[in-house]
Amino acid sequence: MPTTMKDIKDLAKKLEKFDSELLELAKQPDRVIEVNRDGVITHWQAATILSQAVHHAIEHRCQAVTALEFKGYKAPDLDDYDVWGYELSTK
User: Fold this and answer.
1) For 17-38, what is each residue's pLDDT tens digit?
2) What is the pTM of this model?
3) Same domain, 35 and 53
4) Total domain count, the chain
5) Hey, CA dihedral for 39, 47, 79, 83, is it positive or negative?
6) What is the pLDDT at residue 16?
7) Three-state secondary-structure class, residue 28
8) pLDDT in tens, 47-68
9) Which of 25, 27, 67 is nearest to 49 (CA)?
10) Which residues span the domain enclosing 9?
11) Could you give the CA distance from residue 16 to residue 19 in angstroms, rounded to a whole number?
12) β-pair partners for 44
């Protein structure tokens, strides 16, 4: 958990790297990935893993909004940051 501005900046750099990696993975054709979790082998479509990463990030945004509202802050409306609005803003 970051406790200083330096910690937040360091975390932001790591997250930017992860974001770039996910964007590069999304450009690749779908494929099956073998996952070894504690000796148990499973197979997943890469698209499933990428989708989970996106949905997991949404969960954290919702948690952050809830925490802000609980503390009395006016939190951003997450509906203002939907993918369709982003697409329109880039045209």
Assistant:
1) 988 988 898 899 999 999 999 9
2) 0.58
3) yes
4) 2
5) positive
6) 92
7) coil
8) 998 889 888 888 888 999 999 9
9) 25
10) 1-30
11) 5
12) 33
